[in-house]
Amino acid sequence: MGYVVPLEGCQRSSLPAVGGKAVGLWELLRRGLPVPPGFAVTTEAYREFVASEGLARELRRWLEYAQQSVEAQLEASGRIRELFTERQPPSFLVEEVAGAYARLGEPPVAVRSSAVGEDAKTASFAGEHESFLWVCGAGEVARAVLRCWASLFSPQALSYFAHLGYSPAEAAMGVVVQHMVDARAAGVMITLDPVTGDPSQVTVEAAYGLGLAVVGGEVTPDRFAVDKVTLEVRGVRVGNKSVAYRYDPTWGRVVAAPVAEAEAQRPCLSEHQVQELARMGRQLERELGRAQDVEWAMDAQGRFFLVQTRPETVWSNRPRAPLADPEEPVLSRILRNIRIPMRIAD
Amino acid sequence: MATQTVVHRFPSPFEVPTPTGAEGWQRMYPYYLLFSEENRSWEEGMLWYQDGIHHPEVLFPFDTISHEAWRIGLGQNNSRIFAIPPAYGIEQRILNGYLYITPVPVSDPKWVEERVGVFMKRAGHYYQNWNALFDRWKEKATRHIEALEGIQIPRLGRLDEEEVVTEARGMSTGWKLLEAYERLIDNFFVAWQYHFEMLNLGYAAYLNLYQFCKQAFPGIGDQTIAQMVAGWDLLFFRPDDELKKLARLALDLGIADRIRQPKRPEEIVAELRQDPKGQAWVAALDEAWRPWFFFSNGAGFYHHHRSWVDDLTVPWAAMKNYMERMERGESVQRPKEEILERRERLAREYRELLPTEQDRQTFDQNLALARTVATYIEDHNFYIEHWHHTIFWNKMREVGDRFVEAGFLEDREDVFYLNRHEVAQALADLVATWATGGRSRGPAYWKREVADRKRILDVLRGWSPVPALGPVPAEITEPFTVMLWGVTTERVQEWLGAAGVRKDDEIRGYAGSPGVAEGTARVILSASQLSEVQPGEILVCPITAPSWGPVFNRIAAAVSDIGGIMSHAAIVSREYGLPAVVGTGDATKRIRTGDRIRVDGNTGVVRILERAAR
Predict the structure, then answer these.
(1) Reported ipTM
(2) Considering only the top CATH level, what class is B504-610?
(3) Residue in A229, A341, A342 nearest the CB of B349
């Protein structure tokens, strides 16, 4: 497959090569959904890198050491991280990444881990791997790729591997490099009601700026409940979005900036925008055949981009007993219903 | 209910004072509808709430017949005929002229269980044969209305007519008058027997789908469920459709300008009868007249809810509007395909969201049954509250004429200040003295009484009824209360004032039809004002009656004081795709024409954005 592949060049079968996030984005792309353009760095590149002289041996050594104790695991994680980040990116990587980055137009990008198996099987792995926002320049992108790879060996990841009885030495990591959306608002969307499991609802959470504040739980986002069928907004809970992550050109990086109080307590999306988003969520769920957990961002022009989708796992994996037995006569169901007392006070 | 936890207490009915000036109001109503010392301990143990959905106004003494009729009709069907296991009927009391009601539970658990078998058998029979029984019902109802039309309210002359002798009737016209009144009353009550014959079973089947949907989709809107069920050929769209046909015919005949003359519609009709073109049109009007113009501008529960046959102003305005729109080449037809397509799409898409095949099967069964019963739920009103009651109230006006002729009353409308038992007594007085040639007490007695009652009712109209009386139990086992009266946890909380301080610019009601609209309010208190409504305005009215259908073409949203999720207004609004908030209680008092308001049909909230300049 090569070391680098454009997102639109992925396929379902390339999952082992590019990881779940990249395949998820490709699923969005091929359905005409808006995804920031980008490319994936393949596990082939990762393997080439870790197979390199010196690194392979060191890596094995620290992974063995990590098995001794929790403290050893922590130390090993730090050492492995240094192995990855304290060396110059290999020239094959820099070359490939620079080429793809140039084809992208050399914009600021987000560099995100796309672990193999991360999204599909072991959902709670998500978020254990790092993302780097607003990365500029081919060299920086290549360095960010190394740091993504290193996050395969974060302390949490190592203990999770141990928990799964899975050898980290055999693990591999893809990386997604995508146009950075200069987000006016961003957040998540789940194509059900996470509280009740109601499958007829799309739930959108949104806050100002990049999605970090929502994903990291730093603000109380606005929460919109949208009817999946009619797209009517069922309910709005306006949060207090006191912080927004935005790119600060003075510092040349993403910073957490305070949001004025009046703005913080106003919904950050219009009803129409929420509906537009929910419509995309509905389309996705229908086409992928199961409830989705989506990350999205809206740029300054009000255009939406989906930056990640993965299957919802909490309600979707829960066995669902039928609500009633269709073999039972309707009349006896009616009878049961009229015997349910109405709570008129709690 | 006695064993239940009481979570709050509204005032006891025995603690509520009589408004100053309304002393003696009790005598206007039958003794059995008043709270009494004899039943005090039972009455003080129940939660009573003011029936703001069906009877929000002060009750004219005669008009108590409406709720008395449903008290019996609903009660016996729940209690004695279909044996709804946990529920008897809805008990009623009048306090300061307003109707209070309480559902009566079946408290003996053993009896509840015994009733289950009875219910299964009897209700089962109706569900299995629903369509055939509804066909039979329609025939029965139609025959019943014909019988009502046939009741003559004879004038009493100085001499009886000669036919009494030549036909050897052996009975005077005086007696015929007494008999006619008895038949009228009998006919009215029987109409309500029929009204509830299938209604609560229909609601139970609807509830079955409703509860299933709420369980499967906790956040689904009530209206969305209603939309999945709604039929297309609802009878109460029919009068409106007739107006469209008449509008088209007037244009085709080239008589549109004559119809537009600034004269009373009745005068115009009389003129049109004079020439061939006009006659062709009037013939079509006559054709549509019965039953489609026996269409109340209100709910039909009160004598003052007048109908199209009583006053053509409302249908005339609508028809003129249709003519204009047709001339502009606009379509005035309801988008039938669109509505049906939407109904099917909703059902299909919700169905697909169900997680198991069993659930989809259950959904199909529940939906099919709900749709089967829906036609009854939607259409029965036309027969009873509209067609039948229009005739009934007018027959009672004829009874009023007899009183005026005998000097008992000043005006035919005054008859409604007597309750139905008093009318029978006054007629006994009238007919007997007609027979004997002696002196009746009626003229002095009833004229004085009516004058006094007018004063008392005026005082009571100024009283704001307390929303509820007595203890609030933690739960009520009455399956129809929510649907018919909108009593929910939230509503009780609101009564309790727990919902917080009332905001001046916010009015809460029920979400009647989804969507949000902003616009200029037009407060309409009676049907005769409907022509004032400008395109794009938001209609604010006490009750959105079905005959107001035509105005829904012009408005951006609707707000009503009275009505629930299954009220006509809500159904019509959903049909026209307009946001509606119904059952607000007092929107017509708090909103003024010209105010800019925002109607949120999803949450049931109306907000006043900007007050009109005064």
Answers:
(1) 0.85
(2) alpha beta
(3) A229
